Amino acid sequence: MLKDFDFDATVVGAGAVGLACGRALSKRGLTVLVLEKEGHIGQGVSSRNSEVIHGGLYYPTGSLKAQFCVAGRRALYDFLASRKIDHWKCGKLVVATETAEVERIEGIFEQATANGVEGLEHLTGAQARALEPELNAHAAILSPESGLFDSHGYMLALRGEIEDAGGSVVVSAPFEGAAPLSGGGFSIRVGGEGAMTVTSRLLATAPGLSAQAVAGQIEGYPPQDIPTGHFGKGVYFRLIGRAPFDRLIYPPPIPGALGTHYRKDLGGQGVFGPDLAYVETEDYSVDPAKADEFARYIRRFWPGLPDGALTPDYAGIRPKLHGPGEPQPDFQLHGREHHGLDGLMALFGIESPGLTGSLAIGEAVAAALTETE
């Protein structure tokens, strides 16, 4: 070793993916620092989603999304069970609400099978209604491996494992820039009340919506290697009254996203969302007037939705790498072959299924950063 560093590895972002990266690096015996600009962990993309454990149905075979979703989901269930974190493998129905959608869900079945998703079943409309009597379905796919979990409990467990291994997760500590050191590693500027500069042999960036801005603060990072980012906002409405279904209910995906779906959350309430609207700023307001639009969409698969039963709940923003009408790209994990900087992994566009795939993403980042050591 040519020089001493304050930390073996620094991770920017203490959401699910950043914490999973920190844990994976800690497991390899490295001293780890995780920096988070907010006052608590998991306050960004990781706190404003559906908390769904995805099976891996939709993503192109061989893509990072497909690989990380399937491997991450398997690892996630084991992690949650062994640490007694609240979760529910409730299963998912992907529903064709009319004859014209049957071919689309058949395509999803074929994609999911190619991705190695276990236990899939074709259901007739009658079979789907036998499971969920209030459902409108001409046909459906049952994915028994899909589920829900307590994402905050999960992130607390990840933080605990990093700290148990001697690492540090520091909140209210914004990343303000990094510069490569002549003998390897990075000098990293940390803001906040305890502003300081630390040195780190390795650097991983997983800051969600700030991915492009963070990459732009690393000296020597080629601007042309930073993909254009977009904010994809989605709002959720909560159901007033009894939850109609136990399983997740998903119509076929919409362009650029999985579309508005139903879940019965871990507290037993029905929640619908998200939709997709591109925005320029981090605006988390929910327009109550959208309830009518949601109701029309929901009645396609739940005709029994009572009038006035939806109340605004919350909104999330996804870090998308495509704009309206553009094809949905894969996750991007940029190592030296992209930007030319040793010891750096920069993550872009980690939206769904990033939460499900977080353990697998963390392992991939840690492996890439340590394979040449």
Radius of gyration: 21 Å
Biggest beta sheet summary: 8 strands, mixed
> Which range does the strand content fall in?
25-35%
Q: What count of helical segments does DSSP give?
A: 9
Helical content class: 25-40%
- What's the SSE pattern? EHEEHEEHEHEEHEEEEHEEEEEHEEHEH
Shape: elongated
Runs in which pLDDT lies below 50 for 5 or more consecutive residues are: none
Distance between the termini: 10 Å
Number of strands: 20
What's the pLDDT, averaged over the residues?
Answer: 96
Specify the structural class: alpha+beta
Question: What do you see in this structure?
Answer:
Helix content is 26%, strand content 26%. By secondary structure, the protein is of the alpha+beta class. Strands 1, 2, 9, 10, 11, 12, 19 and 20 form an eight-stranded mixed sheet that branches. β10 and β11 form a beta hairpin. α1 (16-27) packs parallel to α5. The N and C termini lie close together (10 Å). The mean pLDDT is 96.
Question: Would you kindly provide a brief summary of this structure?
Answer:
The protein has 373 residues and is of the alpha+beta class. It is built from nine helices and 20 strands.
Topology, please?
Layout: E1 7-12, H1 16-27, E2 32-35, E3 52-53, H2 64-82, E4 87-88, E5 92-96, H3 102-114, E6 121-124, H4 125-131, E7 139-143, E8 147-149, H5 151-164, E9 168-170, E10 175-180, E11 186-190, E12 196-205, H6 211-216, E13 230-239, E14 248-250, E15 261-264, E16 270-273, E17 277-279, H7 290-298, E18 310-320, E19 332-334, H8 336-339, E20 344-348, H9 358-370
Parallel strand pairs: 1-2, 1-12, 2-9, 5-14, 12-20
Antiparallel strand pairs: 3-8, 4-8, 5-7, 6-7, 10-11, 11-12, 13-16, 13-17, 13-18, 15-16, 19-20
Helix pairs in contact: 1-5, 1-9, 2-9
